[in-house]
Amino acid sequence: MRTMNIPTIYEDNDVVVIDKPAGLLAHPVTNEKNTLIDLMKEKYPEARLVHRLDKDTSGLMVIAKNEKTYEWLKSQFLNRQIHKKYLALVNGILKDKKGIIAKSISKSRKRGGSQTTAPIGKMREAITRYEVIKEFSAKGGSALGGKNYTLLEVSPETGRTHQIRIHLTSIGHPLAGDDKYKFKRQAKIESLNRQFLHASYLQFQLLDGKIMEFRSELPEELNKILKNL
Known about the structure:
By secondary structure, the chain is an alpha+beta fold. The protein has helices at about 35-45, 65-80, 165-170, 220-229, and strands spanning about 10, 15-20, 50, 60-65, 85-90, 100-105, 115-120, 125-135, 150-155, 195-205, 210-215.
């Protein structure tokens, strides 16, 4: 089985918190092998994924090492007691420097395997908060294609599939590097070979009641993109 460097941020008898690299599938969709859960089970036979990150999204994940912990953490996710924050680079400059996107999500009939939005109250409720961290106003050049970009801190209150990606596209600001939910003729940043989305913050409660907080810095390949902007 392929090995991959997966940094361990924290570990005890019940959980392990890792910093997932981009390019690693969390869980097999069909017959994939060498996924995150495969690698985790090599070391922790009873490992269970409590939540997931898209293949090309990097950052913090908590993995339960036994069934009791899995059920405990899963209940926190269902009750929206686990807090997550992401760093996201999007196309364009947002009119509102902070806001809430409340649009339900369902499968798209037009785009196979994709998700789409609907007015809140229909389909599956999804809520995402965002706040502008920094704006990049491009003056031209092949690397930027003469386009503007904004770095956001994004906090999903629900955990729908592709939620952040769909919500940001729905307000006219798709993620840089996102090929699935991009606009037609969307400018591409040279050297960005993945969607610019990183799970940078995670907070949850252990079985003994202790509140745990973890932070993860942007990977070097994403830091380089920002420096070039």
